[in-house]
Amino acid sequence: MAGSATIPTVTDRGRSGRTITVLGRSMQMTPGGDSSNPTGRPRAAAMRQFRPIGWYLKEADRLITEVANEGFGRKQITRFHWQILNRINEAGAASVNGMLAGVRNFVTEDELRSLFQSLLDRGWVKPIADSEDIEVEFTEIGRREFSDILAIQHDFFSRLMAGIPDDDYAVAIGVLSRMIRNLGGTP
What we know:
The chain contains 7 helices and 6 strands, in the order βββαααβααββαα. By secondary structure, the chain is of the alpha+beta class. The relative contact order is 0.09.
């Protein structure tokens, strides 16, 4: 895989810390409490070897959206349609108000309403109740379509996670969650 050289790898987990190799560069990370690095944070010189974390976050999100949309394009849907359909699959129903907080950073409320409406127009979902909030569940056609879409998602997720052990993924999510909390957000 072309991008595999950029995957961070821990090459040593000794008492003195760990050596992490990213983009072909090795960096010694010292543990907290070390007299030469009492904060436990990477030294500024080591951090300068990398682009700012925001670049990695934006690039990962851009590529996730682009590649997911390429796969989902076979069904004329997007990553955000998938999120609605998956919510219905997991919870039995989905609503604009129920999903808005989770997708607010990616789509507006009007865009989310349009996504729901496009699924209604296809006949994949049907309204549960008549209200200002669009709340839907699968139709039989939608349930069959979801099976095909789920296979596309599994292929995409396998590609995304290739070479990344579950524990590395958990560490990445943990670090990002801590950063979000450190800045006053809720992961």
